[in-house]
Amino acid sequence: MEEQLQELRRLASRAENRRRETGIPRVAMVQGAIPEHELTAVYEPMVNLVLQGGKTITVGRSFHYAPATYCVMSVDLPAAGAVHASASAHLIFRWR
């Protein structure tokens, strides 16, 4: 699994510090530190795979995601998020 994770990290390294579409419908990636106030929104249904660094999502209570873990949101959900570590990388799969 470590080999696949390294390959995904290499691919996500091209994303820069903003969401970048991948060319695959509804699959995007982001890398870098994102200010917490930019992560407060109504999140669309998605799977967020944390490749490196970490992310905290607060929806009533807080959930922390470490590298090689993921978060699934199956409905539109108001939430606040925070990315941890300047070298964080995430793949985001949306199904809308």
Compile the SSE list and pairings:
Blueprint (H helix, E strand, L loop, with lengths): L1 H11 L7 E2 L5 E5 L9 E3 L2 E14 L1 E5 L3 E5 L3 E18 L2
Antiparallel strand pairs: 1-2, 2-7, 3-7, 4-5, 4-6, 4-7
Largest sheet: 7 strands, antiparallel
Output the CATH homologous superfamily: Jelly Rolls
What is the CATH-assigned architecture? Sandwich
Taking all Cα atoms into account, the compactness measure Rg is 12 Å
- Please state the structural category: mainly beta
Distance N to C terminus: 28 Å
Q: What is the string of SSEs from the N terminus onward? A: HEEEEEEE
Question: Helical content, roughly?
Answer: 10-25%
Which CATH top level class fits?
A: Mainly Beta
Number of helical segments with 4 or more residues? 1
- How many β-strand runs? 7
The global form is globular
Q: Count structural domains.
A: 1
CATH topology: Jelly Rolls
How confident is the prediction overall: mean pLDDT?
81
Point out poorly predicted stretches: none
Strand content: over 45%
